[in-house]
Amino acid sequence: MEIKVFASIKEKIGSDTIDLFIGDSITVGELKNHIFIDYPELDGEVFQVAKNESFVKDDEVVTSDDTVALIPPVSGG
């Protein structure tokens, strides 16, 4: 699964995508756990997960066919 990342997450990992092998499907909570294991530099990073352009909760199931993105909080001024 290719996961799109933005802002501080992109800066920390040095890429605008994360490639993660998940099999057929995984919950968002499990996805987050895999990301924190594979990318320890993201430990403590706060973000929401979007599936097909809608924010989802940790119990939502995602598949490799879904468009998934990690969206950090946005601040402005």
TrEMBL record:
UniProt-listed SUPFAM superfamilies: MoaD/ThiS
Segments crossing the lipid bilayer: none
UniProt cross-references to Gene3D superfamilies, sorted A to Z: 3.10.20.30
A Pfam short name: ThiS
Highest taxon, organism lineage: Bacteria
Signal peptide (residue range): none
UniProt-listed InterPro entries: Beta-grasp_dom_sf, Mopterin_synth/thiamin_S_b, ThiS/MoaD-like
CDD domains: Ubl_MoaD
Protein name stated in the entry: Molybdopterin converting factor subunit 1
Organism: Jeotgalicoccus coquinae
Gene: moaD
